[in-house]
Each structure stands twice: as C-alpha cells, then as structure tokens.
Amino acid sequence: MDEYDLVVDFDLRREVEGELHVRATLHNRSLHDLISWSLKFDLPKSIRAREGTDLVSHIGSHVTLAPTEPLSLAPGRSTDLAFSGDGSMIQRLSDLPRGIYVSCEEENGKSIHLPVSLGEHNLETIATGQVIQTPYGSVNDAAVSAARGQVGSVGAGAGARQAAIPSGSTMADPRYGIVPRPSQLQVTDGSFSRDTSIDCFGPSEAACAIDWLGGSLSLQMTAADQAGAQLRFVVDTDLSHESYRLTIDPAGITIQGADAAGFFNGTASVLQLAERSGDGRILWPCGVIEDTPRFAFRGLMLDCARHFHDKETVLRTLDLMAQFKLNRFHWHLTDDEGWRIEIQAFPELTERGAWRGEGEVLEAQFGTGPERYGGFYSRQDVQDVIDYAAVRQIQVIPEIDIPGHSRAAIKSCPELLVDEADDSQYCGAQLYTDNVLNPALPGTYQFLHTVLDEVCDLFPGEYVHVGADEVPPGVWEQSPACRDFMAEHGYENAHELQGHLLRDLQEHLAKKGKKLMGWEEAVHGDKLDHSATVNAWGGIPIGTELANAGYGVVACAAPFAYLDLAWDANAYEPGYYWAGTNDLAQCYGYEPGTPELTEEGAAQMIGVQAALWGELVKGRAQLEYMLFPRLLAMAETAWTAAADKDWEHFVQQLPRQMTRLHAQGVNHRPVDADS
Ligand code: TNX
Asked: Is the minimum distance from the CB of 577 to ligand 1 under 6 angstroms?
C-alpha cells in the first residue's frame, strides 16, 4: 500500500428537475488520519454544495469541497461529499473532475497535498452519446491500422457523411496524394528517383526550401549549375505571390515561383509526393502541378496558456503546418491560467504567472494538480520559434489576451492592475470573477504599452493579437474610476470602455508599424478603425457581417474550425462540445462566408484558421490527436478553391497522408468507423 492511498468514486445521478447530483465517496486506504481535510479537483462548471458539504471555493475550474462537520477521516474509512449542477454538466469522460487531490494537515500543523485516484464512476448511466472506450494517448494500434489503409470508413461520427476509403495499391500511388488539393495536376508516366543526394540549383530565395527538403528527406543537397541540376528553382514573375508550378520528369524536378513563398509551397508538394521505395530510393511520379492558394492567411491558433506546450512541441507543430501549406501561427500566449512569454520589464509575469499549484499565485486548473505546473518561453525560445517558422514561410502572430482572460497578469502584477475600489460582480464563461483589466486605470495602459512594446520588438510579423474575447456582463459597473472615465468621455456602456482601450492599443501598435488583431468582440463599442483584423468565431454569418463592414476577417467559426471540440458523440472521445461535435466531414464542410458576402466583403475575408484551445490538451500526444487529421481538412479549405473542394477526393488522399503522419510519429486520431 502507498503511504497515502486515496481513491474517490463518483456517483452521478440526473434528477427529475434537471439537476445532476454527484456523490463523491472518498476512501482513505492509507495508514494515516486525514485531519482538517478538503477535497480539490477541477471542474469548469457551476456547482452547488449539497447536504453535509461546503463549497469552500470555486476559482475558474478549481473546486475545493470540505465536510461541513470537519471530522478527520480515519484509515480504512470512507465518507461522502455531495454537490449538484446543471443536468448537462457531465456527459463525457472529459467532463469528469480531474486533478483530484486532498489537502490536509499533518500533526505538526503543516499542510500537505495528496493525490487521489479516480476510482469508480457511472458515467455510462448518464452519458448522452454512445459509450465506447477510445484509445487515446500515445500512438496506438488503431492508428497504425488506419494508417495502413485498412479502415472501412471516414467520418463515422453522429450524422457524418460516410465515404469509403479505397484500399490497396491505388492508394499507395503517390500520384493521388497531395493535401491540400492543388489547382491543377497532370500526371504523366514515369518517375524521377534519387538515393542519398540531389544536385540543386536556385536563387537565394530558394535556400530555405532547399534546406527544409533536404532535412525532411535526409537527402544531401549538393549545389550544382542550372544545366546539371536535378532540382531547379526558377523565378517566374508572372506567377503570383505564393503560387508555384512544379514539373517532374525523369531527369529531375523544376519548381517555378515568383518568390520564396512560391518556392516553399512547391517544395511542400515535392515533399508530399516523395515515396521511399523498398531499396531506400526516393521516387517522385512525373507530372505537372499549377497551384495557387485561395486564401493568403491560412492559420492555426494554438493555446499554450491553459496547458504549456514546450518549445519542441511548438516547433514540431510548425513543421506539420508547413507540410500542409499553412502559413500563419497564431500563438495564444496568455490567458487566465498562465502567462507564457518572458517580458523583461515585468519578470513577475513569468516568475508568478507562468505557474499553477499549491503555494503559487494561480491555483491548479484543468487537472494539473497540487504540484507546481507550467512554463514559459524565454526571449530566446520566442526567437527560435520565429526563426523556425520563418524558414517555413510561417508568420507568427503573438496573442496577449486582454482585457478579459487576464487573471495570470492581474495576479502577477496586482499593484498596477487591481482597482481596489471596483466592487463589480461578474462571472465569465470560465467562471472567474477577477480576470478583467480595467480600462480606467492608468496602470492598465502602462502595463499594456510596456508589454506590447517588447512584443513588437520581438515579433517581426505585421499583426499583434490583443484578444478582446469574452468580457463578461457586469464588469466595470461598480468601479468609480470607470464611472468617472465614462462620464469624461461620454461613454454609455462597457463595450465603449473596452473599445476605448483597444483603440488606444491600436494606435500604440500602429506607431510600431503593427496592425491590431482581435477576436470578433474587438469591434464591440465601435472604436477601432478598419485596419483591424478579427477572428470570426461565433458562426459563419458573423464573418460575413464583419467583412462586409470593412474589417479584415479570418474565419474560424467554432463548429467547424475549433479542433478542441470532440470528434463525435462517443462519451469517451475527448473534447469540448459547447459548439457541437466536429468530425472530419463537419470540419471539411466548412465554407466561410454566406451568400450575403459582398464583393468588397470577399476581399476583406483574408483567411481561414483552425483553433486548438487548450483546456483539455495536455502534452504533445493529446495535441496531435486533436489536430490530426482534422487540420488537413482545414488546410484544404484554406488553400483549395471552393469549386475544387471535394470530400470524396479528400478522403481518397487520407490513407497515404495518415501513413506519412504516422511515419513521423504523429499521434493522429484514427479515422475508423469503430472509434
Ligand atoms: C471559447 S471563442 C474561447 C476560449 C475557450 C474556448 C473553448 C473564444 C475567443 N474563446 O477561451 O478556450 O471557447 O472551446
């Protein structure tokens, strides 16, 4: 027996009045008395304590429950705590309390924090979807068999359109394999092949592409003159930015492009077409591809705040993006649960705000438990990410999420950011009551200007993202400073206050030559000028509306583009589902913009972006499981002309693409009718 062996069972019962009753039975299987104990776990839903139980605190997702009669729990004894919440609050494995532990006192009065294992639960009795255990974690057998093309169908989730994956030799034929689908592809007979090296010729703009290809295929790239080269990069200024023409014949490969981006995109296709033969040679099928992107902005947002992803994981994700011609990395670096970027002027942001756990300024959240959990990117790390992305033609867009989602900053720098006189009562979607910056405090501006100056100096790209999402109702209402500020400026509501702050930041960023980006709520209060670009997440129509209004729009409608959503209704499939489930067919079906999109509006709709929020995404395996293969569907929506998008065609490319991902050790979700 462990020195402390604690287990909790959860009994879930849905009551007639639409409430869910939860009984948590704590078993003390250790040799010690638990003195003055409380049970802690993470559950991002509103709950009420029931008989015999006190809800000591509920901060974000972090719950502390204690018995109303604080008795000690003797060795071998069990006891119940009870709480309730909305009937729909637990429907899936992902919803169950996570990061469970007990805090109690040792005989010397010192607090200790003891992990508790999840014992029995009866999730299946209340689950609304199917209940099938899915393999989830490391690369698994199901993934292997899917990768080998032995699966029956794709998009097996609720309501998904079914499409059979052809099996066998046709699909091993690389001629069919490029994702996103190129504008034109003509396959001819024959192939070109190399074993360990290839003679290359190209202008300096091709240097990154040459290095990338050589590194990715472990192929030695030897400089040669144009006539003798087997891989040639040729400038063709008639081609548009990012477009390329790829010609492969038995003598070699030619990539034409107007610029480095065109060369790179052509190279991404060369990489995808490469097939290793049994004797270790690399073969390319002959043919000609003419290719041009639909959208200039083809993005992925990665939330590194809710859970920290180390630099290597970020770099690997960038490389995978590049393979599918995605070119914007929206890096969500701050949120309530963590500040992840070193700011020299405010070291406390990462000394305090990058860490959660007992004894830290931030409590455990999303299952991270009592131990110190977190991390941040040093300036050198950030530079490494920017450089690595630049080689792959990816611009990095840093996000400092304000004025909501700012709890990590507020707890790190309270002297600047807390308005002691503010008695406003609010509670946002993530259940915080103290996570919004105050637009009437001078400290807010001082803080943000300083942070953004450092961010602008670090990141060379054109955009800086300032969040602006999900500021809850009720905020600032009881702040005398806000009331005076509103009177002074003639503002009538909180939207105008937020707009004022964002407008100030927009001007500040403009002085540094940067454009402001925000989530769609950034336009609330109507204070920004139209150089602002927004992520339209609330649905497809809002994207049309904002583009028609003249803002730049990057479409990421949650029901299609949010890859933190669960794949299907299976209760064991990980993910959120507040915007529905999102299987491959749903994701592929995304068409940003509605018929109301005007011609001017269409010009403002600059791109499409997938988003991976991080509440449930701890570690690389989970990250890859949520991203792949859905990111391929998003890449096709972003790159391929709407008229050329074809689900059946896309599905035919999958086995080969899955094999490629698998060979790189990517823990993609199996595309399998049974999972
Ligand atoms: C909404 S949509 C959020 C995030 C959450 C996500 C979870 C938006 C701009 N914000 O804060 O992580 O839902 O799916």
From this structure: no
- Contact 34/73 with Cβ under 8 angstroms? yes
Report the nearest-CA residue for atom 7 of ligand 1.
Answer: 613
Edge-to-edge strand order for the sheet containing 62-67? 53-59, 62-67, 35-42, 98-105, 111-115
Tell me which of 332, 535, 613, 618 to substitute to probe ligand 1's pocket, judged by most ligand atoms within 8 Å of the beta carbon: 613
**Dihedrals phi, psi of 652, to nearest 5 degrees:** -65, -25
pTM: 0.94
In whole angstroms, what is the distance from residue 604 CA to residue 367 CA?
Answer: 40
Bridge pairing between strands 395-402 and 463-467:
parallel
State if residue 573 touches ligand 1 by the CB under 6 angstroms criterion.
Answer: no
How far does the centroid of ligand 1 lie from the alpha carbon of residue 334, in Å?
Answer: 13
Q: What's the rounded Cα separation, in Å, for the pair 469 and 482? A: 20
CB 483 within 8 A of CB 453: no
Lowest mean pLDDT among 59-63, 68-72, 671-675: 671-675
Tally the C-alpha atoms within 13 A of residue 603's C-alpha that lie toward its C-beta: 3
With a CB cutoff of 8 Å and minimum separation 6, the contacts of 312 are: none
Residue 494's φ and ψ, nearest 5 degrees, are -65, -35
**Number of alpha carbons in the 13 Å side-chain half-sphere of residue 31:** 3
Q: Is 13 helix (H, G, I), strand (E, B) or coil?
A: strand
Position in ligand 1 atom list of the atom nearest CA 578: 14
Per DSSP, the residues of 561-629 read: HBTTB-SSS-TTS-SB-BTB---HHHHHT---S-TT--HHHHHHEEEEEEEE--TT--SHHHHHHHHTT
Q: Is the CB of 101 under 6 A from ligand 1?
A: no
Contact 81, 67 (CB under 8 A): yes
Q: Report whether pLDDT(161) > 60.
A: no
Note the pLDDT tens digit of each residue in 215-263: 999 999 999 999 999 999 999 999 999 999 999 999 999 999 999 999 9
Q: Which atom of ligand 1 is nearest to the CA of 614?
A: 12
Q: Please report the pLDDT score of residue 177 as a whole number.
A: 81
Where b means 16+ CB within 10 Å and e means fewer, 281-299 reads ebebbbbebbbbbbbebbb
Whether the CB of 568 sits within 6 Å of ligand 1: no
Q: What are phi and psi of 211, to 5 degrees?
A: -60, -45
Tokens of 280: 């270790």
Q: Is there an atom of ligand 1 within 6 Å of 432 CB?
A: no
Q: How far apart are alpha carbons 60 and 427 in whole angstroms? A: 9
Candidate from 133-142, 361-370, 452-461 with smallest mean pLDDT: 133-142
Rounded to the nearest angstrom, the gap between the alpha carbon of residue 298 and the centroid of all alpha carbons in its chain is 14
Task: Give the percent of the chain with pLDDT over 90.
Answer: 88
Residue whose C-alpha is closest to residue 403's, from 497, 302, 542: 497
Classify 660 as helix, strand or coil: helix
pLDDT, mean of residues 583-609: 97
Q: 3-state class of 229 per DSSP? A: coil
Residues marked active site are found at 335, 405, 470
User: Token pair 């406003």 is at which residue?
Assistant: 424
Q: What is the DSSP string of 126-175?
A: H-SS-------SSS-HHHHHHHTT---EE--STTPPPEEPP-SHHHH-GG
CA atoms within 13 A on the CB side of 524: 22
pLDDT at residue 190, as a whole number:
94
Q: List beta partners, residue 515.
A: 463
pLDDT at 140 over 80: no
Q: Residue 151 pLDDT more than 60? A: no
Contact indicator for 524, 499 with CB cutoff of 8 Å: yes
- H/E segment holding residue 123: helix 123-126
